[in-house]
Amino acid sequence: MLHVESLSKHFTLHLRGGLELPVLKQVSLSVEPGECVALLGASGQGKSTLMKCLYGSYGADSGSIWLHAQDGRIDIASATPQQMLKLRQRDIAYVSQFLRAVPRVPALDVVAERWLQARPAPVSDLDAEALQETARIEARALLQRLNLPESLWELPPATFSGGEQQRVNIARGFIEPARLLLLDEPTASLDAANRRVVIELIHEARAAGAAVVGIFHDEEVRDAVANRCVALNH
Ligand SMILES: Nc1ncnc2c1ncn2[C@@H]1O[C@H](COP(=O)(O)OP(=O)(O)O)[C@@H](O)[C@H]1O
Ligand SMILES: [Mg+2]
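Above: query sequence and magnesium ion SMILES. Below: predicted holo structure tokens.
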């Protein structure tokens, strides 16, 4: 599903006289459908940077990131912004530690929106309404499963606690099966019960054929979800 080949990436620190900081050096990594690979490495080794490269947020200096997308094989490292947008709507889900909430959009719609994006645009108003309704039903089911209090569903997540925002983020990442699922410490602010729900969701995604790449600081979670670990170090 995913084949990373000799990926390199550095940052230029302009505030420090243009100092070059090499972060990823010739990283290669393959992930089969149904696998969950955990990235290991001390803080600052480039785990999050690699995830952002896989999501197309960071460009790479060299190397390639091949993904078997719905429309065929594509190199994320050289994809156009339009191609990247499409990949993010239908093929790749990214659950970061932090939710970037759009002001005024209720939690339920933040989640439902992801489900709608992955589908062809509605052909009529009636069709649009039916799709909206189905999306909201799916979103409700997931938020319920993640124990997000129902009183919050119609509120924008901007003022939610860290754990509540994280659950909205997780629901958004899992509502639509993705081919590539990127998880950057998805359980960092969750309690034990909700961690278990996330573990279940990851197992279900793997069973559905997703390739999962994750950073899991919680060893228990990592052992429960990953079938393989890959260490990043300079
Ligand atoms: N946008 C950025 N600009 C400059 N340096 C960065 C940026 N993002 C990360 N870094 C640096 O790259 C290194 C790797 O960071 P990161 O990928 O966040 O590591 P990890 O997730 O493994 O803790 C760190 O030294 C960090 O300071
Ligand atoms: Mg990190």
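The CA atoms of residues 95 and 170 lie 6 Å apart.
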